[in-house]
Amino acid sequence: MTRLVDVRNMSRWIADHGPQRCITGMIDYLDADFRRWEQFDKTPRVASHTPFGVIELMPTSDHETYGFKYVNGHPSNPQRGFQTVTAFGVLADVHNGYPTFLAEMTLLTALRTAATSALAARALARPDSQVMAMIGTGSQAEFQALAFRQTLGIDTLRVYDVDPDAIAKLARNLTPLGFSIEAASSAADAARGADIITTCTADKQLATVLHDADVAAGMHVNAIGGDCPGKTELDPAILDRARVFVEYTPQTRIEGEIQHQSDDFPVTELWEVLLGRKEGRTSPADITLFDSVGFAIEDFSALRYVRDQVAGTDYESEIDLVAAPEDPKDLFGMLGAFSPVG
After folding, report:
1. Is residue 203, in this structure, part of any structural domain at all?
2. pLDDT for 57-93, tens place per residue?
3. Is the whole-model pTM more than 0.90?
4. CA dist 290 to 12, 110, 247, 256, 332, Å?
5. Is 161 known to be catalytic?
6. 286 and 308: one domain?
7. Are 82 and 139 in contact (CB under 8 A)?
């Protein structure tokens, strides 16, 4: 049998334990897996692009467990009554190939993206950071805010979105949790005086939501919205002034903010900083930029974390997903019990 965490039980598990606690635990798993980065199989995600959006598969393996995530990104979905992003993920036993764990990953991806952002900020942002600007207040925003409060103690947010209802939604969700939220008149207004800037917009276009003049010395930019070919959020001039950090360079060169930079544009992979092999922030005046597109190892970590946390509880169930004939060579024999009589 394959263990399953469906949407209802994932929602219940997160609500019962609290998203901040879930994010904190996930950061620990991410940190552990980033530190053994070289043990994993790595490949850019397999993507099918259409005018409507993208559908992707994100696989990896540490040679004991194989994992993948199915995820879509359809920016026009909310106007049609659908979510922009949906996902599910699978873990399998490398030794026999059997899937062992299946989970919804729409909610889980929000947690893991926030946890990855926080892990990077913990390594790269100024430790005295107090204010975060959030440009884009859609589905990711609350999770990002909780993650940054958990890791850096940030509870003051300056927010901007082209949709005033999205800003109101964020304030409605986060103000009761103790956040101080100021609605800004523009992205530049939100960035003014911030220590950290998170950009997370959904439109699939070569946009410039953050301009070079908006980024001051010492800031950390958490760029998580540019996540496919033809989609960016930052003025390229920002990249020229910043120390740029990525997850997996070959994938980020296809999908990230650096997609239009030359192949020799210098970047540092986050795992190298966590292991002390390369420098992160070198001075309080550095501009650090995490050009995050999401990578399969992060999903692997998130799935491992949930699997371990829910084991033996009523947050999981079992599904009969793998055919198991009594004779492994007689698959046809499984039909006998259902053959018509006479």
Report:
1. yes
2. 999 999 999 999 999 988 889 889 998 889 999 999 9
3. yes
4. 31, 17, 9, 10, 52
5. no
6. no
7. no
